[in-house]
Amino acid sequence: MTKQLTLTGARVVTPDGVLDGGRVTVADGRITAVDAAPAAAAPDPADVDLAGHWLVPGFVDLHNHGGGGASFTSGTPEDVLTAVRTHREHGTTTLVASTVTGDLDTLARQAGLLSELVEQGDLAGVHFEGPFISPCRKGAHSEALLRDPDPAEVRKLVDAARGTAAMCTLATERPGGLDAVRVLVEHGVIAAVGHTDATYEQTREAIEAGATVATHLFNAMPPLGHRAPGPIAALLEDERVTVELINDGTHLHPAALRLAFDRAGRDRTAFITDAMDAAGFGDGRYRLGPLDVDVVDGVARIATDDGTPGSIAGSTLTLDAALRRSVTEDGIPVEDAVRAVSTTPARLLGRADRVGAIAPGLDADLVALDASFTVRAVLRRGAWVVKP
């Protein structure tokens, strides 16, 4: 048996609301109790005093390509673990590794490598972003390597992940797209609509076929129009769809973020990072799949020969920064922001019985934030990642 750990004094964000001066007890990597500390109780010297802090569940990132100068898209196991550690230090205790467009054999090999780290418990799954996307909305993906979503090829990648494939982003309007969605659903993989040029009607067809996620809503898809509403309206209005939002101040105007959050609500909104290698590392020249990326002032763009700004190439975001921005700048209530970085993505991954909330029986994945919503401590499965 491991020694019991008790965290006291924080404003604890629970599924039922905020517990002021709360007490969270941990043993054997799990939360064993969540309650209010007795007002007259003398403090135990062994307790961790978090007075003046928020205590929230560990963050869950559905869409992440790397960090700490390392990549999930082409890196070694050591590279992958470097990126994982970087995001853990920012509070992300559950993380899905995302690939980028490449040839099928390369993607299959990388999926095999990532699957081993899922099996070890370091990752929560594999997300294939590309190559089955639209050349019209390719973003930071190599157009030469794009292909239509052939169901057999989709199945090849799912099989290569050995049961760890969590999600696949598709341009579902492309030939084979709807059948590919059905293949994914059949194998328990989330079908996500993204990097798409679909119409409103085509997106509705994808949802009916089983698509349940909007990959970074607004980005890499037609804009919302009053006569041609496109995929954005279809994805926002359907209660079966969870929408990803990149809240870094670059990918979305605050008004667009609030529009999506208000329409989808906290139970259908998941903040993601879409992070690449530079997250938690700094400006410079990087590689994203086969493409060069320049990061300047924290903004990643495809490198160009003439010096003109290239397409945005992922982000340098961490989920603590997304939560902090949503609360301090966008006016989103703390409890709702916490659901967007923890509870909703955990539910989408089918892990709500283990992570995504502060409740007895769940993993002791906890993040302490100071009054400015800066990470001051991180606990993962009862072990300190960042000590208070």
TrEMBL record:
Residue numbers binding Zn(2+): 129, 195, 216
Enzyme class, UniProt record, top EC level: hydrolase
Pathway where it operates: Amino-sugar metabolism; N-acetylneuraminate degradation; D-fructose 6-phosphate from N-acetylneuraminate: step 4/5
Cofactor field: a divalent metal cation
The protein's name: N-acetylglucosamine-6-phosphate deacetylase
Known catalytic reactions: N-acetyl-D-glucosamine 6-phosphate + H2O = D-glucosamine 6-phosphate + acetate
Record-annotated active site: 274 (proton donor/acceptor)
UniProt entry keywords in alphabetical sequence: Carbohydrate metabolism, Hydrolase, Metal-binding
Top-level taxon in the UniProt lineage: Bacteria
UniProt similarity note: Belongs to the metallo-dependent hydrolases superfamily. NagA family.
Molecular function terms from GO: metal ion binding; N-acetylglucosamine-6-phosphate deacetylase activity
Annotated CDD domains: NagA
EC number: 3.5.1.25
Binding site for substrate: 140, 219-220, 227, 251, 312-314
Gene behind this protein: nagA
GO biological-process terms attached to the record: N-acetylglucosamine catabolic process
